[in-house]
Amino acid sequence: MKKNSEKKAGNAGKGGRPGRAPAGSPFPPVVALDVGTTKIACLIGELDGQGKLDRISGIGNAPAQGMHKGVVVDIENASESIRASVAAAAGAAGAPVDSVFAGVAGAHVVSLNRRVSLINPNPDGRVTKSERQALLKKLKQVEMPPDLKLIHALPRQYILDGQDGIKRPVGMWAKRIEMDGHLVFGAISSIQNLVAAVERAGLAVADIVLEPLASSRACLKEHELQSGVMLVDIGGGTTDVVIFTAGRLVHSAVLPVGGNHITKDISVALKVPLDAAEAIKLKHGHAQSHLVEDIEMAKFRVAVPGATQERTVTFSKKFLARVIESRVTEIFSLVRKQARESGYLSSIAAGIVITGGSSQLEGICGLAEQALSYPSRTGLPSNAAAIIDIPSNPVYATAVGLILYGSERIFKRGPSRPPEVSTRPLGLWEEVLAKVKGWFGQESKT
Ligand SMILES: Nc1ncnc2c1ncn2[C@@H]1O[C@H](COP(=O)(O)OP(=O)(O)OP(=O)(O)O)[C@@H](O)[C@H]1O
Ligand SMILES: [Mg+2]
Questions:
Q1: pTM, entire model
Q2: Is the pLDDT assigned to residue 397 strictly greater than 90?
Q3: Is ligand 1 within 6 A of the CB of residue 391?
Q4: What angle is formed at CA 21 by the lines to CA 212 and CA 79, rounded to 5 degrees?
Q5: Domains of the chain, CATH where assigned
């Protein structure tokens, strides 16, 4: 448990031992913290006596300060926002918060696919664990810039004497053994800055989880994971993409573009301030201009700095939709490009699931189908549907995924044990991804 002299974010609660179990349950509450570019969302969940997530006792939401494109750029400001969000949730729950399951994303997360091979040295021609280990070692031997750290090395499949699609090669016979793998890298500094912002808010980090994996946990169905699916989380500053086939994570990417860029485009096109552009987007926005009537006009009142009177902006809704469509089309073409380069664009039989705040833009699924030639649906965080007080809004996809993940972790840890706190921020990625692998049957880096 972290000792911190700073005022605690969760102290808006009604007191009591930090991290205590809710009345009647031996399990402590689970706290999810989604540190996004535009908002910091905090959910507090309570587990029942059997260790199952029972209810959400607190929800906090605060505008994000000190964040840019998914990463912390001002520790002090980010920590203030974290404190505000957690305090709101803790106040509603009536209990203080000590440690959180935090999400992490940002363009610093990069991944690549690689094939490595070796000739089987065993005289009997049988593949053993040591060839598998040797391939994994080879997979990791890739030169990357020094500020990037390898955070995950995932075997996706093995190819034995040209026969692909093999998941477990040990015990089989082959002369030539190949492995297709997925490597994920991240900037150590970005993780450290996130942990520092959380700690400055008087909280400890129980665990860190890749945000698109958390969103997947909340939104994707088992049959989609098995058939092949791409989840696209379009937030404010980033668009996170993950692809699963046969239940495994095979591709991940974070693109530094999101809903904020749409808002900026509207601001420039309509010559209005950003806050007005944001409100216009939410009220009148549409991502498919051909579905908007030519003659539809809209009016919006905009404050004039230094003047008491507002001015009225009149614009064509079709024009607005064209502005939005052009930016969203660009986002989808970036998604398509890197998904195609991953080699998995043709493996997503279950289609595309779009989540994150920007997935609420009218017409966005239709545009995705047009741009990516796959059926698409909105990803609501419905995998926790039994918990009726979990917000069914794509803005909360990451937070709900974090709370599902966190509650499983707390359950596995068993009742009445103090929250696990990482004391090794530099090695967090390894720890985190080794833990996350369990969700989707991945193999870890080591
Ligand atoms: N109804 C809506 N129509 C269009 N866009 C919306 C709507 N509601 C929210 N958004 C947009 O969603 C974005 C915020 O989404 P979200 O909360 O998922 O982002 P975030 O988690 O803060 O950021 P990121 O994940 O990129 O770091 C904003 O750009 C906002 O304008
Ligand atoms: Mg987000």
A1: 0.82
A2: yes
A3: no
A4: 45
A5: 9-107+189-216+382-440 (3.30.420.40), 110-186 (3.30.1490.110)
